[in-house]
Amino acid sequence: NAGVTQTPKFQVLKTGQSMTLQCAQDMNHNSMYWYRQDPGMGLRLIYYSASEGTTDKGEVPNGYNVSRLNKREFSLRLESAAPSQTSVYFCASSEAQRFVLGRSQETQYFGPGTRLLVL
Amino acid sequence: GQQVMQIPQYQHVQEGEDFTTYCNSSTTLSNIQWYKQRPGGHPVFLIQLVKSGEVKKQKRLTFQFGEAKKNSSLHITATQTTDVGTYFCLNYGGSQGNLIFGKGTKLSVKP
């Protein structure tokens, strides 16, 4: 099993260009996530998909769109890239997502990341 | 909204010294997970704590969840160069989509 895969690994964009980051998982997980990681800021959730056919905003969704293409794939799109979107982007998946207090949560499995530079 | 403060931000130790990172919250945490990210790598799950006062060990790593479930710690005994990386705590907040990562503690180990 490959786990969580992401493409591309690196990308340089000019301001205003668009691109789509691809993510796929082969663990039959229900939930998928997109994070960005900036120095000193930790990991911040952009969007998530609790199950196939659903997507929801996370902490920092502005400037991004997502598509849960099927159970395996979850893509992140930048319609008009800005320098502030320079970051490392991680996709993750988990078996399920439960937010009921007191119940255990599933492990998140991360992809290798995409390093994006917007000039 | 709920926040998780992680301290310290950086820690430099001599190989063989101990290391501790803390996650603190002003509100009760439902549970907490710990992740490790090696330089240039991606976060990897270490452990999950659910019960008040819970203590779990993995070789030289000891994880604790406070009695009030408002804080947690990760302690490494006798650090090795392989421990280098950034350690994050993660809390699933009370509302859907409220995933809260601590900002991480970056550990460097001098041989």
What's the topology here?
The complex is a heterodimer of chains A (119) and B (111).
Chain A: E1 4-7, E2 10-13, E3 19-25, E4 31-38, E5 42-49, E6 56-57, E7 65-68, E8 74-78, E9 87-94, E10 109-110, E11 114-118
Chain B: E1 4-7, E2 10-14, E3 19-25, E4 32-37, E5 43-49, E6 55-58, E7 61-65, E8 71-76, E9 85-92, E10 99-101, E11 105-110
Parallel strand pairs in B: 2-11
Antiparallel strand pairs in B: 1-3, 3-8, 4-5, 4-9, 6-7, 7-8, 9-10, 9-11
Describe the structure.
The complex is a heterodimer of chains A (119) and B (111). Chain A contains no helices and eleven strands. Chain A has 119 residues and is mostly beta strands. The model of chain A is unreliable at 99-103 (pLDDT under 50). In chain A, a hairpin with a 3-residue loop joins strand 4 and strand 5 (42-49). Chain A has strands at 4-7, 10-13, 19-25, 31-38, 42-49, 56-57, 65-68, 74-78, 87-94, 109-110, 114-118. By secondary structure, chain B is an all-beta fold. In chain B, a hairpin with a 5-residue loop joins strand 4 and strand 5. The radius of gyration of chain B is 14 Å and the shape is globular. Chains A and B meet through strand 5, strand 6 and strand 10 of A and strand 5 and strand 9 of B.
Characteristics:
heterodimer, A: 119 residues, mainly beta, 11 strands, B: mainly beta, 6-stranded mixed β-sheet, 5-stranded antiparallel β-sheet, globular
